[in-house]
Amino acid sequence: MNGAMREARRAGAEAAHGVTARPAAWHRTAVLAALMLAAFTLNTVESLPVGLLEPVAASLRVSVPAAGLLVTGYGLTVAVASVPLAHVLRAVPRRHVLTGLLAALVVSSVVSALAGSYGVLLAARLLAALAQALFWAVMGPVAVGLFAPEVRGRVVGALSVAGSLALVLGVPAATWLGRLSGWRLPFALPAVTGLVCLVTIAALLPSSRPEEEPAAYATGPDARRFGTVLAAGFLSATGAFAGYTYIVAFLDRVSGFAPGTVSVLLSVFGAACLAGVSVTAVALDRFPRAALTAAVIVQTVGMLGLGAAGDRPAAAVLFLVLTGGALGPVFMAAQNAMLHCAPGRTDLALAANSGCYNAGIAAGAALGALVLSHAGPRGVFLAGGLLTAGAGAVLLGGHLPGRRRRPGGPAGAAPR
Fold it and tell me: What is the pLDDT of residues 286-343, one digit of tens each?
């Protein structure tokens, strides 16, 4: 009874302040589940070609490096398009935006599966990339706005767990299915899950003006913190993916693991990422700042440890687990930070964070290639670790006293 009374009072207060009231409890749960499934699907689609490059290249009569552009082109599109798309569509109700981008995912998946040429497949992939670029900006405020502020960190964590499952389950399952039945079937299946998400959201998510939604504005707007998190996210992503891009070469040439063992260790890396996200999700509501700083520090230790002691198998496994355990939590905690410190609309802040992170992924891959040719795999991880240490220094510097912008916007509250 008390819980129901609190919910009623909260809904009344929101209505009085011009904020959209939350839908029924089971509607909220169903929409969150649909958003989690969409996050899993889009993250799977992003990396889907990785394990199927050779079959795709052979089928469409292109080189394997050309097939690799299906992944790199996707990532660059997400990095470049996130902020412009979020800005252009900032006044469109979120229900319409989400159903539109999920429709784009469904169309992209069907066209990809039926593609008779490389150009058609690449165009379909870029359509899905545009959908993903907008999804991570819109999905966060919609999901957390369905629930009370004191549990928003756990909602972000649930979405991040779903996204992380793509690397642990989605991509490996798609690779297995593609090698068993051909690459076209795994490219088509996201259309099914995308359609389920589309119907659920279209039916159950209320339509409202974006600026009136409960999480449209940060709980404690802070322009300085916003810039700090963006810079740290870019540096940590650059460092992480400088190493991760060449992790197979490192485990083979530096650690001396057999090819079969390397495959197992990649699964261990993915499992560590999922475990790290799950553990960090529990702490996000109580320690939003410390969660991000701790994840960056753990990533620094893991990468520098691989660079310094990765030639010892036991040490390599230990530091690989630390690196994997921090990779997912860094992005998750940065997304959560945007909901606390965005100086304007949270969707635009989340788009900026996603764009910076994806730009860091592309920069890291390029930096890793450059360092690899001059200093080998060990040098790549040392360079990546130093960049991640720089991200930690930026975050720690951001804790120093400084002038903070006063809270504002319809959902303003005291900074935490």
Answer: 898 999 999 999 999 999 999 999 999 999 999 999 999 999 899 999 999 998 999 9
Q: How distant is the alpha carbon of residue 130 from its chain centre?
A: 14
Residue-wise pLDDT tens digits, 119-152:
999 999 999 999 999 998 899 889 988 888 888 8
Residue 242 lies in a domain: yes
Which one-letter amino acid corresponds to residue 220? G
Same domain, 190 and 268: no
From the list 196, 215, 190, the residue with the least C-alpha distance to 14 is: 215
Report how far residue 46's alpha carbon sits from residue 8's, in angstroms, rounded to the nearest whole number: 41
Q: For residue 318, what is the domain's CATH number? A: 1.20.1250.20
> 273 with 313, same domain?
yes
The b/e string for 73-93 (b: 16+ C-beta within 10 A; e otherwise) is ebbbbbbbbbbebbeebbeeb
Answer with the one of 212, 237, 259 that is the final residue of a domain.
Answer: 212
Gap between the Cα atoms of 131 and 82, Å rounded: 9
Give yes or no: residues 208 and 236 share one domain: no
Give the residue numbers spanning the domain of 126.
14-212
Encode burial over 28-51: b for 16+ CB neighbours within 10 A, e otherwise: bebbbebbbbbbbbbbbbbbbbeb
Q: pLDDT by residue (tens digit) across 376-396?
A: 999 999 999 999 999 999 999
Q: Are 349 and 220 in contact (CB under 8 A)?
A: no
Residue 195 has, within 13 A of its CA and on its CB side, a CA count of 10
Number of C-alpha atoms within 13 angstroms, CB side, residue 44?
A: 28
Share the mean pLDDT of the chain: 86
Provide the token pair at 238: 């650059």
Neighbouring residues of 110: CB distance < 8 A, sequence distance ≥ 6: 188, 191
Against a cut of 0.85, is the pTM above it? Answer: no
Residue 217 has φ and ψ, to the nearest 5°, of -130, 155
- Summarize pLDDT for 209-222 with one digit per residue, the tens: 787 788 888 888 99
| Residue 183 pLDDT | 95
Q: How far is CA 410 from CA 23, 224, 345, 415, in A?
A: 19, 20, 10, 14
